[in-house]
Design a protein that fits this description.
By secondary structure, this protein is of the alpha+beta class. The protein folds into three domains: 2-137 and 157-292, Aminoglycoside 3'-phosphotransferase, Chain: A, domain 2 (Alpha-Beta Complex), CATH 3.90.1200; 311-383, no CATH class; 388-436, no CATH class. It has 17 helices and 14 strands. The strands form five sheets. It has a four-stranded mixed beta sheet. A hairpin with a 4-residue loop joins strand 8 (180-183) and strand 9. The model is unreliable at 329-389 and 404-430 (pLDDT under 50).
Length: 437
């Protein structure tokens, strides 16, 4: 924070408090970490959304957008947090830290986990997710691992190959209304505060709509409650911010060429996935949001069923046990489209060779042959997929998807029927949906 704010004050016109003295440990005269900085007059913009006049709000948003664009001047060779170098007038990119990378004890995880600097956007996104999944084991470890891995599958949808290797620019980690101090009488910004988790990030992370200008987009998916005036404010002023940022990109020299309009259009998807990959409490809303973007209006029930069922699938159990997570063996609390899944007692993966064990209660255990050769009292039935079974299954699925494409009003009934028919021909399905659109 000290290095970053000093750099911002020196290289940009962004108003930040001056830091006069600091200590990061207890080995000092006051016996505790401290920081001494300027007191700045101003009121949080978040407290003025209802009372601030329209013209003054537009002026503040123009300042805000120009400060965002100014940060594109501060480019670095990798993604991470800034730290001092041997030369006092230079800084180096060091280990990446964010709120998501230190909460729940992730700052105390094994030193073997790579924390950056990251030299590509893909390394950065996967690295954040790996840190989140590797928090100390607790009651949520299994779900954190499975849902985090599921979210990783959406990374290819947001990656821009031309930006994967940079540019990487300095970003305020929470550049939102609560951290913008203003003079409501003059209608100007007096300071940008809360730089403690600022970091060098991908250009997509900077040239994006701030979260407070996406409240209306996030409200149907978020666990947070937004007031009606907040939703209306973000809907009303998001175009103003977009116009101001495009003007700033033309008028402020930053030696950077970027399609600002395209990045802003993509930013709600990218920004939400970026947060969900790094912060546990955002996983649920991120799954719903990105699922809607990729899979469309009927994604909610499908994703809920897929995510919850995955907890008991062979892949998740195998990899979860490999890294020391215990699977929820009885499926307690798992609901899928209003139906409880078939009770699966355990599942393991052994080079794709799976068998079924039927116990006295009629429950099914999927396990490798090598694991159950000498189990007394168990009836072993090898899985066999005959040609006739495959043919009939394809005919049934073809009938289901034909109905799905003709009339979406029967979607709930079709989803219920699909639960016991897992052999989806994905290529045909995507082709039909593409023709519909």
């Amino acid at each position: 924070m000290v290095v970053t704010t000093s750099l911002v004050r020196r290289e940009t016109s962004i108003p930040t408090p001056r830091i006069y003295g600091w200590s990061a440990d207890d080995d000092n005269e006051v016996g505790t970490p401290y920081m001494l900085m300027d007191y700045v007059e101003g009121v949080s913009l978040g407290d003025c959304l209802q009372s601030l006049e329209y013209d003054k709000t537009v002026g503040i948003l123009s300042q805000w957008a120009s400060y965002v664009w100014e940060l594109t001047r501060l480019q670095f060779p990798a993604i991470g947090c800034l730290g001092p170098s041997s030369s006092q007038d230079r800084v180096h990119v060091k280990t990446f830290l964010s709120q998501g990378s230190v909460d729940q004890g992730r700052d105390r995880t094994s030193g073997a986990l790579f924390r950056g600097p990251y030299t590509s956007v893909s390394d950065y996104l996967y690295g954040m997710s790996t840190l989140k999944k590797s928090a100390p084991v607790d009651g949520m470890s299994y779900d954190r691992f499975s849902f985090g891995t599921y979210l990783e599958s959406f990374i290819p949808y947001v990656l821009r190959p031309e930006l994967n290797k940079g540019p990487f620019v300095l970003c305020h980690d929470d550049f939102n209304v609560q951290n913008i101090l203003i003079d409501p009488v003059e209608g100007r910004i007096t300071a940008i505060i809360d730089w403690d988790f600022a970091a060098v990030k991908p250009l997509q992370s900077l040239l994006a709509f701030p979260e407070s200008l996406r409240w209306d987009i996030l409200s149907p998916f978020s666990t947070s409650t937004y007031e009606s005036y907040q939703i209306e404010w973000s809907r009303r002023f998001r175009p103003v911010f977009a116009h101001a940022l495009m003007l700033a990109s033309r008028n402020i020299d930053a030696e950077l060429e970027a399609d600002v309009s395209a990045l802003l259009n993509d930013s709600p998807f990218y920004a939400q996935l970026e947060r969900g990959l790094g912060e546990v409490w955002r996983e649920g809303e991120t799954l719903k949001f990105v699922g809607r973007v990729v899979y469309g209006g009927h994604s909610g029930e499908m994703l809920r069923w897929a995510a919850q069922s995955m907890r008991l699938g062979p892949w998740m159990t195998a990899y979860g046990e490999r890294v020391g997570y215990s699977s929820p063996l009885d499926g307690a609390g798992v609901e899928t489209c209003g139906l409880r899944p078939k009770p699966v007692m355990a599942a393991r993966m052994d080079l794709g060779l799976l068998t079924e064990i039927h116990n006295e209660e009629g429950m099914v255990t999927v396990a490798p042959v090598s694991a159950i050769r000498n189990v007394p009292g168990k009836k072993v039935v090898k899985q066999r997929y005959e040609w006739r079974d495959k043919f009939l299954q394809r005919k049934r699925l073809k009938k289901i998807f034909s109905g799905l494409c003709r009339n979406s009003s029967h979607s709930l009934e079709l989803k219920t029927r699909m639960i016991d028919k897992p052999g989806m021909t994905q290529g045909r399905w995507w082709t039909r949906l593409a023709r519909r659109s």
